[in-house]
């Protein structure tokens, strides 16, 4: 997605060779026009898949998630992150190791919002090792629903998440793929269109 690549080049801050900061348009301040375009692009990529729910994780997945859900005309559900909790019978719970915080969180979704027969599109802001996406996929599967695909705003293709998710049989569509953050610079996996 050309608009997003340009935004990453103009405003992305390379914090290390592993971490990109995009707090001016995605992770703190949010660019609503860009979010709307992301929603349209995910909808185009997953066209014809009869998606019934979009699932993301708080907080940075919510904006691209809601725009996609709006385009698709379906509800958005965001998984909540909690440090630890006593198991309750009305929620799905999965453990997810956080790449940015380097700690394990439990993510939860109320059972009443995903059902068997649902066709779920998972959306997240970044893909690194795939922990968040796998956790969300496990929740969909606990519900007896189907993961139709995983839509990622920024995939760091030099980390293994994308490959692991594809090997596990999931369809992964990323709006931009970053090949490297070495030497303080962003290089894209696919050349600029
Ligand atoms: P994963 O679960 O795939 O290992 O990491 C993805 C999650 O970690 C995303 O939900 C995102 O919040 C966070 N994350 C991973 N890498 C980055 C990064 O380079 N920059 C930012 N801002 N967040 C990241």
TrEMBL record:
Residue positions binding 5-phospho-alpha-D-ribose 1-diphosphate: 128-132
Binding site residues for xanthine: 20, 27, 156
Gene of this entry: xpt
Protein species of origin: Paenibacillus pini JCM 16418
Location in or out of the cell: Cytoplasm
Phosphoribosyltransferase domain sequence ranges: 47-157
Protein name: Xanthine phosphoribosyltransferase
Catalytic activity: XMP + diphosphate = xanthine + 5-phospho-alpha-D-ribose 1-diphosphate
Pfam families reported in the protein's UniProt record: Pribosyltran
E.C. designation(s): 2.4.2.22
InterPro entries: PRTase-like (IPR029057), PRTase_dom (IPR000836), Pur/Pyrimidine_PRTase (IPR050118), Xanthine_PRibTrfase (IPR010079)
């Amino acid at each position: 997605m050309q608009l997003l690549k340009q935004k990453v080049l103009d405003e992305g801050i390379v914090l290390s060779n592993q971490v990109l900061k995009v707090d001016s348009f995605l992770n703190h301040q949010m660019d609503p026009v860009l979010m709307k375009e992301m929603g349209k692009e995910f909808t185009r990529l997953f066209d014809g898949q009869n998606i019934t729910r979009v699932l993301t994780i708080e907080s940075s997945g919510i904006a691209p998630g809601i725009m996609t859900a709006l385009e698709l005309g379906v509800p958005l559900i965001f998984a909540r992150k909690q440090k630890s909790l006593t198991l309750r019978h009305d929620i799905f719970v999965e453990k997810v190791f956080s790449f940015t915080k380097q700690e394990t969180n439990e993510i939860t979704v109320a059972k009443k919002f995903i059902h068997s027969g649902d066709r779920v599109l998972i959306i997240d802001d970044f893909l690194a090792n795939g922990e968040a996406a796998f956790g969300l996929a496990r929740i969909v599967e606990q519900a007896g629903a189907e993961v139709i695909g995983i839509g990622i705003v920024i995939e760091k293709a030099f980390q293994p998440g994308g490959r692991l998710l594809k090997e596990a049989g999931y369809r992964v569509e990323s709006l931009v793929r970053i090949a490297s953050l070495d030497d303080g610079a962003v290089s894209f996996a696919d050349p600029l269109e």
